[in-house]
Amino acid sequence: MFRSVRHMIYDLIEWRSQILSGTLPQDELKELKKKVTAKIDYGNRILDLDLVVRDEDGNILDPEQTSTISLFRAHEIASKQVEERLQEEKSQKQNIDINRQAKFAATPSFALFVNLKNVVCKIGEDAEVLMSLYDPLESKFISENYLVRWSSCGLPKDIDRLHNLRAVFTDLGSKDLKREKISFVCQIVRVGRMELRDNNTRKLTSGLRRPFGVAGISGL
């Protein structure tokens, strides 16, 4: 209610400035005054205040100079206009709610937030840590990989991202909600020599990617 009244007050302030500017043509000025009076009457109605009876130009009718029948008819017309406006606002709100529900149903309905604190795994060389979502019943991954490059010193290769290794899996929609199980899988790939025991400098290789370990949490 407060937000509705605030928006109406902002509109009235803007329209008042336009009226006082004296730059509007007579026809636009007349239409603007009708908008102002309609907005005031609508605001009074939703605040349960008295309905102000007006003539066709928006001027308040003087009960001392207006007959009882004319006042009654003007009151009926004003009440009908306000009720129509209320029904219109209600219909627009319902349409907005329906559109929001349809949009919500058509877009991903949930997400998974991942915050990587540390990799406790003795590797001895640089490694790549890949995290993804997996459907064990269909035997396939259902998301892209979140990749973190880990150094042999036990820290992220990008040291600036220390304590800030976060990812959000947002490609989860209504189809994923129907899955019986979803697993969170973490794969570790060693990057370096062919064999860790290979100390022969002549045969020494580097930059080779070798699977090293895997872990998972089931039942997400």
TrEMBL record:
Coiled coil region boundaries: 72-99
Gene3D superfamilies: Dedicator of cytokinesis N-terminal subdomain
Residue ranges of every copy of the Dedicator of cytokinesis N-terminal domain listed in the record: 2-205
Alphabetical list of InterPro entries matching this protein: DOCK, DOCK_N, DOCK_N_sub1
Superkingdom assignment: Eukaryota
GO BP terms in the entry: cell migration; myoblast fusion; small GTPase-mediated signal transduction
Pfam families on file: DOCK_N (PF16172)
Molecular-function GO term, any one: small GTPase binding
Keywords in alphabetical order: Coiled coil
GO annotation, cellular component aspect: cytoplasm; plasma membrane
Protein name: DOCK1 protein
Gene of this entry: Dock1_1
